[in-house]
Amino acid sequence: LPGPTLSRHLCTNPPKDDKHEKQLPSPSNASNKIPDGGMAIKLLPGIAMAGCVAGAGFVGAELLGQGLLASQGISGAASPISGIPISILFGIGINNAMTLPESVRPGLKWCTTTVLRAGIVCVGAKLSCFDMAQLGLIGVPLVGASIGGGLLFIPWFASKMGLPPRMGNLMAAGTSICGVTAITALAPAIKATPRETSVAVANVVAFGTLGMLVYPYAAHELLSNSQQIGMFLGTAIHDTSQVLGAAATYKEVFGDELAFQTAAVTKLSRNLALAAVIPGLTWYSLTHAASPSSFPSSEKSPATMSGLATFQKYVPGLSLIHI
Questions:
Q1: What is the CA radius of gyration of the chain?
Q2: In the prediction, which pLDDT does 36 show?
Q3: 238 in helix, strand or coil?
Q4: At what angle do helices 83-97 and 37-71 cross, to 10 degrees?
Q5: Is the pLDDT of residue 86 over 50?
């Protein structure tokens, strides 16, 4: 899970010792660009590893699913286990069982940023304007209730649990809107410490990943139609990539395209609230949160990467997808 070092990297800029010195691009920014010939060779080991892990996940899911069906005397049916969560579990297991060589890290970074974002854009591009309007209008009341409930309940509950007000606001933004993106947008605006940001990010990633693995199957058992299932997945899971992973799992296992589309539209509708929620939480935090952080005061708050910069980076593209 992300630690304080990651949060400092996200929320601070490297110091400039000499204003005339040429600044080199950071590894994260370099990995997000379309690679040239030399960069492509550097990225190739990580891309190959990601592809092998994904392929092994789908093969493993097919074998597990067919074995499960055979144990029940069923033959010829589609596997009830999706390759998406199995691939994720393979990746988690490999990353925790061994230290990955440096040669694969640039390619893995590129796959988890540029390739992942491109996939999200493609999902939005597949949806027609009619689909977006029809499915979006149905989900507006639920999206509003989900965001409003999260913004009201989570800071209150965090205060009852003795957590710092800023951490409660970060968790409220991440849970109610769009996961890590909302947290990294809000953290510098309310002067949250790196540790507060790290804890909020870790919680959103952990519970969002758990939901991505479990909720598709729980929704199939508990809910009655495709639109309900899609809206549930679109509101109950935090990050955009996690929502689409869960929706893709449901579509693959149960063959339900409408649930997938509804989940995508519902999540993109939540993302649009970022434009109003981040300024609102910033104002509330700075004017009403009187108690300081419970973490050591020697830990400095991030002072550079502004919420506006993060807003400008993420929201326009998501807005275009939604339109």
A1: 21
A2: 63
A3: coil
A4: 120
A5: yes
